[in-house]
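stage 2 :: seqdesign
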C-alpha cells in the first residue's frame, strides 16, 4: 500500500500524459498524497485543471504565480515535501534534461532540489526509445539511482508497433509499492510508542487524569509507518482513530496497564518512544463503587506509579534506541538534559507549554531534541505531523 506516501507526480509532453490522470487516481486510491508538476509541453496534452481537480490541489508548472504581484512558487519546498518524485510519462527530452542537470523548467528545478528518490516511466516512439542516446541517458540515470519503469511493447500513437508505450497506471502503482517496500529506510524496524494520557481511578467513575490528547504520539506512529517501520502503539484513552498501517494498537487506561504492556513488548523492539503523559502517582486505595458526595474523602493518598522510560533505559541493549518526551511549563532545557541522563535515554524531546501552540491538546508543537552526545536541534512551531517527521529524521540521521 502507498498509505501516507507523498508522491510528486511529474508529467511531461508525451501523448501518454492522458494516462497520468488515471495514474494520479490510482496512487491516491492506494493511500498516497499526490501533488502534480507539469512541463509546458505537458499542458498541451492534458489540462492542469483535470489534475488539480483529481488531486484536490493546485498544479505547478511555472516559477512565478503572478508576475504583477511578484509571487513565486518555491520549487525547493516541493522537492523536500515528496517521498518520491515520479515522472510519468517521461519524454526523451526530459530524460536528456535530467541527465544534464538542466533547470530551465519548473519540473527540472524541482528535480535538482529534491532530496527524495526519483523514478521515471519513459514513453516515446519505438525508435526514440531504442536510440543509443536515449538508452545511454537511461543507463546514466539508473547508475545515479533513478528508478526506471520500463515501457511496454504494443501499438504506439504513431501507428507503429514496438517498445515505447508508457507502462499502465496499475503497473506503475504496483512498481511504486514494491519499490517503497524495498527502499523504506525503516524497513524491518520495530517501533514501540506510548501515547495519550493515563487515568488513575479514585472510585468507579472518577479518576486523576491529564489533558494529553495523544496527537503527538499518533503523529509519531504515522511518521514511522510512512518510513516502513512496524509500529505498536500503547495508547491511553484518546479520541483518535488507529493510524492506518499500525501493526498493533493496545488500549490501556492506567499507568500500571501501560507499564505492563510497554515492558512486555520492549525486548523485541528496535526503537521505543515514550510520548504518553503517564500519571506520576495514583490513589493508593481506589474505591470499587461510586462514592456519594458526602462520602468523598477530604484528601486522597497517592503512591508513585512505575517509570516506563526509566525502566526501558535500564533494560536497553546497545542496539536499541530509547526516546523520551519532556513536557515542561517553563523553558525546560536543564530538566530535559537531566532527564536524558537520568533515564539513560538516547534522545529527549523537549516541548514546553510556555510556547503558545505547543504541548498538550494542540495540533501544533515546538520541540528541541537533545541527543545523549550533547548535540541539540531546535525546531520551529509546526504541525504535529511535521514535528514527528523532524524527530524521526533526527533519529535516522544520527543512527546512519
Ligand atoms: C502529438 C505529440 C506527441 C508526442 N509524444 C511524445 C512522446 O510520447 N514521447 C516523447 O519523448 N516526446 C513526444 N513528443 C515530443 C515532445 O512533446 C517534445 O520533445 C517536448 O519538447 C518535450 O518537452 P518536455 O520533456 O519538457 O515535456 C510529442 C510531441 C507531439 C506534438
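stage 2 :: out
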Amino acid at each position: 500500500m502507498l498509505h501516507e506516501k507523498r508522491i510528486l507526480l511529474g508529467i511531461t509532453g508525451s501523448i501518454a500524459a492522458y494516462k497520468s490522470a488515471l495514474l494520479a487516481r490510482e496512487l491516491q486510491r492506494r493511500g498516497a498524497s499526490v501533488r502534480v508538476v507539469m512541463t509546458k509541453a505537458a499542458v498541451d496534452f492534458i489540462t492542469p485543471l483535470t489534475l488539480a481537480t483529481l488531486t484536490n490541489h493546485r498544479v505547478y508548472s511555472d516559477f512565478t504565480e503572478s508576475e504583477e504581484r511578484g509571487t513565486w512558487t518555491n520549487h525547493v519546498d516541493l522537492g523536500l515535501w515528496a517521498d518520491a518524485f515520479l515522472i510519468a510519462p517521461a519524454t526523451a527530452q526530459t530524460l536528456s534534461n535530467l541527465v544534464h542537470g538542466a533547470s530551465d523548467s519548473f519540473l527540472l528545478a524541482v528535480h535538482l532540489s529534491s532530496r527524495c528518490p526519483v523514478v521515471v516511466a519513459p514513453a516515446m516512439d519505438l525508435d526514440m526509445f531504442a536510440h543509443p542516446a536515449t538508452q545511454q541517458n537511461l543507463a546514466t540515470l539508473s547508475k545515479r539511482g533513478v528508478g526506471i519503469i520500463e515501457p511496454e511493447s504494443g501499438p504506439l500513437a504513431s501507428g507503429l508497433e514496438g517498445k515505447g508505450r508508457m507502462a499502465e497506471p496499475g503497473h506503475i502503482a504496483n512498481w511504486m509499492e514494491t519499490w517503497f517496500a524495498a527502499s523504506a529506510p525503516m524497513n524491518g524496524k520495530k517501533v514501540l510508542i506510548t501515547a495519550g494520557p493515563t487515568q488513575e481511578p479514585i472510585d468507579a467513575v472518577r479518576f486523576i487524569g491529564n489533558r494529553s490528547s495523544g496527537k503527538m504520539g499518533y503523529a509519531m506512529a504515522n511518521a514511522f509507518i510512512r518510513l516502513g517501520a512496524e509500529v505498536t502503539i500503547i495508547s491511553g484513552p484518546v479520541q483518535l482513530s488507529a493510524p492506518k498501517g499500525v501493526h498493533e494498537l493496545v488500549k490501556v487506561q492506567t499507568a500500571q496497564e501501560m507499564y505492563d504492556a510497554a515492558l512486555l513488548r520492549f525486548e523485541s523492539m528496535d526503537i521505543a518512544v515514550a510520548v504518553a503523559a503517564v500519571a506520576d502517582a495514583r490513589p493508593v486505595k481506589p474505591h470499587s463503587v461510586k462514592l456519594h458526595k458526602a462520602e468523598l474523602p477530604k484528601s486522597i493518598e497517592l503512591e508513585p506509579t512505575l517509570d516506563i522510560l526509566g525502566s526501558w533505559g535500564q533494560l536497553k541493549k546497545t542496539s536499541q534506541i530509547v526516546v523520551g518526551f519532556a513536557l515542561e511549563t517553563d523553558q525546560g532545557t536543564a530538566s530535559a538534559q537531566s532527564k536524558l541522563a537520568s533515564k539513560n535515554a538516547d534522545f529527549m524531546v523537549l516541548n514546553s507549554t510556555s510556547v503558545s501552540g505547543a504541548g498538550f491538546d494542540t495540533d501544533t508543537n515546538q520541540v528541541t531534541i537533545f541527543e545523549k552526545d550533547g548535540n541539540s536541534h531546535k525546531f520551529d512551531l509546526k504541525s504535529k505531523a511535521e514535528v514527528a517527521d523532524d524527530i524521526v529524521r533526527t533519529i535516522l540521521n544520527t543512527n546512519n
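stage 3 :: structure notes
- The chain has two domains: 6-182, 190-285+300-398.
- The chain has 13 helices and 23 strands.
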